[in-house]
Amino acid sequence: PRKIIIDTDPGQDDAVAILLALASPELDVLGIVAVAGNVPLALTERNARRIVELAGFPEVPVHAGAVRPLVRPPITAEHVHGQTGLDGVDLPEPDVPLHPKPGIDFIVETLLAADSGEVTLCTLGPLTDVALALNRAPEIAPRIREIVMMGGAYFEVGNITPTAEFNVYVDPEAADVVLRSGVPITMLPLDVTHRALATPERLARFRALGNRCGAAVAGMLGFSERFDREKYASPGAPIHDPNVIAWLLAPELYEGRRINVAVECASPLTLGMTVADYWRVTGRPANALFLRGVDDAGFFDLLVERLARLP
Ligand code: BDR
Ligand code: CA
């Protein structure tokens, strides 16, 4: 199986991505690193522990990553995810403790101990932890197989400001470090995730699985679904982060281009904008596979099929 580290800020859609990864024998989840993002670190690391327990994988270690972005004050998204970050489901306090090794140490040490090109980093939140690891130990860069990240946008532009996607906006300097690192990158931007909508019919499929994970996913995604329906009259809420895992499992569901992507780190008006050279007009070398399309029916079939394998 492909070895991955998941760096995440759960977050309902992060939680579903973790469940999808744990349910998939093609992937070996070496560990989970929680980062400050949707809610503060104390909640994201606790939520990550609740999810590994829910999935029946308490042995997967959960580490605490960065408590705040590289240089900016934290920004959270309780307006989307609720006060706990996982509103919509009532999960017990986790028994599994936080792993004592700090998340950045875990990332660096795991990459140095593994064969070069063996470990993939999956990022579902702000890129703070990966940037800190790359800054501390630049020798890990050529050892990373790939960074697969949910973040950014091109045609879909922004969701936290008119021009910025949340994960990049929260820590644009970290995204900049990652995009300049030379590590192979695959980006799952809003252009993809805004096509994967959790409609009431799809939520009913998760509920109909009859297992506790299916019920939890229906509850969590139902919480975000209400937000989008009320605010935007949308048929369902976008399922962002599970696309990172689905891409690893079934890349044929996605299409995109190898292009240059840069991040705006200065302008107050467009801070955190991902400037994607989709038409290759700049001459800047490609640094990312920027995905733009998804077979959303295929994505949901995969999710349902995998969640059925969990308790
Ligand atoms: C991203 O922001 C978070 O709120 C979601 O979990 C996702 O990672 C979407 O912009
Ligand atoms: Ca997230």
UniProtKB/TrEMBL annotation:
One of its GO terms (biological process) is purine nucleoside catabolic process. Transmembrane segments: none annotated. Signal peptide: none annotated. It comes from the Bacteria. Residues 4-301 form the Inosine/uridine-preferring nucleoside hydrolase domain. SUPFAM superfamilies: Nucleoside hydrolase (SSF53590). Keywords: Glycosidase, Hydrolase. GO terms for molecular function: purine nucleosidase activity; uridine nucleosidase activity. CDD domains: nuc_hydro_IU_UC_XIUA. GO terms for cellular component: cytosol. This is Nucleoside hydrolase.
